[in-house]
Structures
1.
Amino acid sequence: MNRRALLKLAAAAPVAPLAIQFVPMAQAAGHGDVTQVIGVQHFRVGDWIVTALLDGSLPIGPENFSNLSAEEAEAFTRAAFAEGPAMPTGVNAYVLRNGSQTVLVDAGGANAFPGLGALPAALEAAEIAADDVTHVVLTHLHPDHIGGLLGEAGPVFANASIHVSSADIAFWTDAEIRAQVPEAFQGFFDLAVAVIEAYGDKVMPFDGDTELLPGLAARALPGHTPGHSGFLVSSGDAEMLIWGDIIHVAAFQFPKPAAAIGFDVDPETAVTTRQALLAEVAESRLTVAGMHLPFPGVGHVVTDGEGYRFVPQDWTFAL
Ligand SMILES: [Zn+2]
C-alpha cells in the first residue's frame, strides 16, 4: 500500500463529506412526466443467469484523474459524443442465479452518495427478494459498492453470507489509517466498519484467488483498494469476469489505461493491474462486466491504437 499516495489523493477526493444517513431511494432524472425506466438486464453464462442491476450514477470529471491531460480528456469526451466535462458514470451490481444459489455481486451505494440507491427497485423489478439472496460477494469496500447492504433496520440481506477479501477488511477497518486521512474520506472507513459489524459472523473473508462456490471464483485485482477483487463466473465452457472497478470512466480509461482515479489507494498498482487485465481479456476474448461500465456493463475488450475499446454486448433476445 502506498500510504503517501492515499493521503495526497484523498485530499483531492471529490466527494462531499460522507455521512451514513438514510435518504429516500434516488429518483431517476426526468423530463416532464417521463422518467427513465429501472435498469435490469439478464445474460446467460452456462447454467448461470446473470442479471445486471442499475443502482444509479455519479458524475466523475477529468479533474479526478492523474495521467490524463485536459487535451486528452477533451478529445476522449468528444470521441464518446459526451457533453462533459463530468461524465455520468453508472453504478452497477449483478445477481448470479443457478437454481440453488442467489449471489449478489456488490450492493450499490444507497445512503452514501446522492444519485444512487435504485438497487432495491431493480431487484424488485427482477423479482429477486432480498431474503432469497444466499451470498453477497464484494469487489471491495468502497461506499458505492456496499452502501446498499445496510438499511434502517440493519442488514438488508439478512440470510446472506458476505464474502470480501481479508486485505480490504484489514485496510478499511484500520483506525490508524482512518485517523491519517482527511475528514471527507473518513466516512469510507466508517461505512465499511458499520457493514462488517452489522453482518458480524456472516462475514467470510477470502484471500487472493479463491473458489467461493462451484462456478464462482475470486481473483485478486489489487491497486484500486488493497483487496480489490474480480469474480470469475463459469459454467461449462462459458465464462464471465465481473471485474469491479478496473475501469471507472470508460471514455477515458479504455483509450488511456494509465489514467488513474483519485480514489485508488495505490494508483501505480491499479494502473499495472488495469493494463495487464485489459491486455489479457483483449487477447482471450473473455466476456467482462464492470460496476462502472455503461449499463448493463457487459461486453468485450478489443485493442484500439495504443489503447483499448469496449464493445458492449448486444441485447440478448432469448436466454
Ligand atoms: Zn466504485
2.
Amino acid sequence: MSSSDKNKESKQAIFHINKEENFPDWFGEICRVAELADIRYGVKGFTPFPPWSYMTMDIMFDFYDTALKRKRHLPMLFPTVIPEGNLTKETEHVEGFTPSVFWIGEIGDGEKLEERLALRPTSETAIYPMYSLWIRSWRDMPLKRYQRCSVFRSEIKSTRPFLRGREFLWIESHNVFTTHEGALAQVMEDIETTKEVVTGDYGLPIMVFKRTQWDKFPGGLNTYAADTLMPDGKVIQLPSTHDLGDNFARAFDIKYLNENNETAYAWQTCYGPAVSRMFGALISVHGDDKGLRLPFKLAPYQVVIIPIIKGKNADAVLEYCKKIEQTLDKAGFRVHLDDCDATPGWKYNYWEMKGVPIRVEAGPRDIKEEQVVVFRRDIMKRESVALKDLKKHIKALGKEIDQTLKSQAEAKFEGLVVDADTIGQIEDAMDKGKIARTPLCTIEMEGLSCDEEIKDKTGGEIRGTRIDIDEKADGVCPVCGKVAQDIVYVARSY
Ligand SMILES: [Zn+2]
C-alpha cells in the first residue's frame, strides 16, 4: 500500500452541495475536496494543479493537439519572456494588454536588466517579429503554427481557480496567409475546430458570436468567440479566434514577395483555446450535487475497480480484480484498481465525488457467476455484466455516458434565450438568469454608449451577433431608438 492510500481514510469521500442554488460554494469546495487546485500556494491567482485536474487537462490538450495537427498546424514553442520593445511596437495592442503585464526588471542581487522583459500575456509580440524573419515569399504560406504554454495576466478582478487565474494554460495558434480571404477561411476553420473539440469531445454546448467592435481583440479587425453557460446563469467565453487583418503585419513588418515579385503585407489570424478555463467550465457544467461527473473521453481514470473483499476470499477476489484490470488496460482503457484498505462504501463515495465515469465492483459471488457489477456515475445506475462482455460493454457505455452528459448540458442551454425589446425586459431576463435576445443599433461602432447603458441598467453584457445561426435584425435599439442593424445577445458573464 502506498502512503497516499494510507491517507485515504482522513480524506473526505462524501460531497453534497446543491450546485444550482449554491454554485460559488460548490465550485470552491469541489476544487478542494476533489484535489483539483490548491489555493494555499500563497500568491494571488496562482494555484498548483494536482494530478486529478492536470491529468484531465492534459487529455483535453491532446484532443486539441490532434484536431490542430489534422488541420495542418505544426507545434512550436516560444520563450516565456518578451522584450519590452516588442510590446511597444504595436501601440494598439499594448494598450490592450500592458495594464495586466508582469514585468521582470532585474536579476540576481538587483542588477537591472537593460530592457525589461514581460511574462507573455499572449504571444503575438513574441512570435511576429520572428515571423517577419521566417516569411520571405508566398511559398512560405499558409503558415499555421501553434504552441501549448501558460500565459500570465495580472487580473485585477477577483481570481478563482481555472475560471480566472493569473497564470493559465492554453494553446495559441498563430497563422499567416497571403490574402484576407485565406485568413477569414482560417477563422471559420477555427470555429469548426471549437465545435468539434469543445462540444464534440468535451460535451460543452456553445453559442458562437461575432463580438462587438468595442469588445474585440486589441489591434485586430474582428473577434469571433464561443460562449457556454455556467450553472449560475452566467456565460463564460471559451475559445476565441481573431481576424487580425494586416495590422500586425504592418506593425511587425511581416512582408513577402508575391507571385509577381512584388512586396506585400501578410494577413493573420490567431486562436486561443484556454484549456484551464475550459476545465473550469467542464467541471461546472457536468458536475452534480455529489461532485464531479467527468466525460469518459477525458477522465484520468475511465474505470475504477473496487474489490469487495470479505475474510477468507480476499486473495481470490484481488486476483480476479487484477485480471480485469490487466484486460481493460490491454484494451486501451485508463483503469485503476483501488486495493487500499478503505471500505468498499468509502471507495464508492470517493470515486463518485471524483467523477470517474464507470465503476466495476467484484466480490466472491461475481467470481462464481463469472460476472461483475458495473456502475455508471452519470445517472448513478448499477447492472450486472458477464465478464466475457465487459470490454465491449465499457466501450459502448463510455460513449453513452458522454452523450448523456452532452444532452443534459444542451437541454439546460436550450430555452434559456428570451426575446427582449426594452431595457426593462433585458433586466428581467438577467434577474432570472436568462439570456436576452435584443435588437441593437449597431455592433460595428467603437465607443457606442448604448452598450454602457445596457450594462449599467441590467448588469448584462452584449456578447455580439450569432454567427452559428442566420438572424435578421428588425425593430429598434432599446437604448437610442435608432433602427436596429443587429440582433445581439445580452447575458451576465464571467
Ligand atoms: Zn443604440
3.
Amino acid sequence: MLTASETGVRIYNLGPLEQVPLGEGRAFLVGSTPVAVFRPRNGKVYATQALCTHKGGPLADGLLGGETLVCPLHAYRFNLATGQPVGHECSALRTYAVVVGPDGCIRLALP
Ligand code: FES
C-alpha cells in the first residue's frame, strides 16, 4: 500500500469541524492553495477550489442545498461532490478529498 508521500498527496489538518457551521462553507488557505470547505445539512463534508470558475466569486459564501452549491455572485450552480456545473457551461470546480477524523478535525488531501 502506498503512503500519501509516495503518491505525491499531502494531508493537511484544518482543525475542528465546528469552524464550519452546519449549512455553510468556510475558506481556508491550505499551503498556498485557497480551498472552500462545505458542511451541508446532509451530514457530509466537501471541499472545492475557493473561487468560482465563472468570474471568481467566493464560493465559501455560496448557498448550499444538499450536494448543490450556488455561487453568491451570479447564482450559477455546481455539484459539490463532482465539481461539475449544473445547468450552465462554465468549467467544473476542482474538488479535493476531505474527511473528518476520529478527533473531529477536518483532513484535506492536496495533490
Ligand atoms: S462568479 Fe460564480 S456564478 Fe459568476
4.
Amino acid sequence: MKIVLTGASGLLGSAFARSASRRGHHVVGVVGQFAHDIAGLEETARIDLRALDAVEAFVLESFPDAIVNCAAISDPGACQQDLATSRRLNVELPEKLALLSRHLFATLVHISSEQVFDGHVEIYLPDSQPCPPNEYAKQKLESEKRVHDLAAEFATTLRLPLLTGNSPSGERSFHERLFLAWERGEPTKLFSDEIRQPCLSDNAADLMVELCERNDLKGVRNWAGETALSRYEMGQALLRHFGLPETLVEIATRGDDPKFAHRQPRLAFDLSSLSGKTKTQPQTYSEQLDSLVVPAPRRQWYNAL
Ligand SMILES: NC(=O)c1ccc[n+]([C@@H]2O[C@H](COP(=O)([O-])OP(=O)(O)OC[C@H]3O[C@@H](n4cnc5c(N)ncnc54)[C@H](OP(=O)(O)O)[C@@H]3O)[C@@H](O)[C@H]2O)c1
C-alpha cells in the first residue's frame, strides 16, 4: 500500500514510518524543518504544510492508498501563542486531507488527543462527550468534526494520550524532555495529582497501520496504554529504569502554581471497544519503559554520571 505520511519527523510519525515499512508498505514522508534521514521512509518530501495548495498538489501527484496525518502544533502554549499557524496545521490541514481522501477514495488516519476531555470523569467511554478546556483541545475537536463531516466512510481519528517513546530529534517525548532538563540542571517538578494513561508511540503506530489495512474501524476512537498513573510516578519509574538519582524528580501538585491549576486532573480511557477488535493491544507502563533509550543528545551527559 502507498501511504502519504505527514509529520514523518515527529515522535509518532517516525514510529509509524518504521511500523508501516515492517509490514511492507511504501511510505512517502512529509517533513518540515527536520534535516536527517528517517528510518522506514521510501521517499521524503520537505513541504511547509501551512501551504495547503502545495499539500494538495503533492498528495494528488503521489496518488496514495492511504493518508496518515501526524503533523500538528501539539504544544498547547504554542497553539495559543500563534493562533493562525496552529489553526492552519491543526484544523485546516486535516480538513484538506479529508477532502483529498474522499477525492482519491483513500483511507485517512488522523490523530487527535485525550485533551478534548476536561479530566473530571473517572474513565472516558467510547461515546463520552468531549469538553475541550483549552485552545489546542478545541482545535483538535474541530478537526475531528471537519474530518468526519467530509470523509466519514474513509476516516479513522485516533485520540491519543501522553506519548512515550524515542523521537528522531531525541527531544520530543516525555522522558526526552526530562533528560534535557536534567542535563541543564533544571529542577523537574512532576505532579502527583495529574493522572495520565501513557502509550508508547510504537504501539500507537502499530495500531495506526492496522487502521490503514482494515476497513471496519472507521470513526473516532480512543486509545492509550494499560496503566493509569501520576506524572510523578512516571518520573520515578523512569529514574529507576535508567538508574538515575531519585533527587532528579521533585513531587508537586497542580495547585502549587496557578499556571498549572487548570490542567486536567485525570485522563483515562476505557479501551475495551477497540482492543477487543485489534491485533495491537495496550501495553503497561513498565512494558513501555523497556523500549526507551537514553536520548542521543544526552548520552555524553548520562555516561559521565
Ligand atoms: N506527543 C504527545 O504526547 C501527543 C499526545 C496526544 C496526541 N498527540 C498528537 O499526535 C500527533 C503527533 O504528535 P507528535 O508528538 O509526534 O508531534 P511532534 O513530535 O511535535 O511532531 C510534529 C510534526 O509536525 C511537523 N510540522 C509541524 N509544523 C509543520 C509545518 N509547518 N510544515 C511541515 N511539517 C510541520 C513537524 O515537522 P518538523 O519537525 O520536520 O518541522 C513534525 O514532523 C499530533 O496530532 C499530536 O497532536 C501527541
